[in-house]
Amino acid sequence: MKYKIACLQMDIAFGNPEQNYKKASDLIHQANAQNPDIIVLPELWTTGYDLDNLKDTAEEEAQEAKVFFKDAAEKYNSHFIGGSVANKTEAGIENTLLVFDKNGEQAGIYSKLHLFKLMDEHLYLAAGKEKGVFSLDGHKFAGLICYDIRFPEWVRAHALHGAEAMFVVAEWPIQRLEHWRALLIARAIENQCFVVACNRAGSDPNNKFAGHSMVIGPWGDVIAEGGEGEEILLAEIDLDEVKEARSKIPIFADRRPELY
Question: Is 112 a catalytic residue?
Answer without folding.
Answer: yes
